[in-house]
Amino acid sequence: MGVDAGYYARELMSHSVAAIQEEPRGSIDLARVLEKAYLSTKARGSSTACILALSDQGLHAVNLGDSGFLVVRDGCTILRSPVQQHDFNLTFQLESGGGSDLPSSAQVAPGDVIIAGTDGLFDNLYNNEVTAVVVHAVRAGLGPQVTAQKIAALARQRAQDTHRQTPFSTAAQDAGFRYYGGKLDDITVVVSYVSSSNSN
Question: What is the pTM of this model?
Answer without folding.
Answer: 0.74
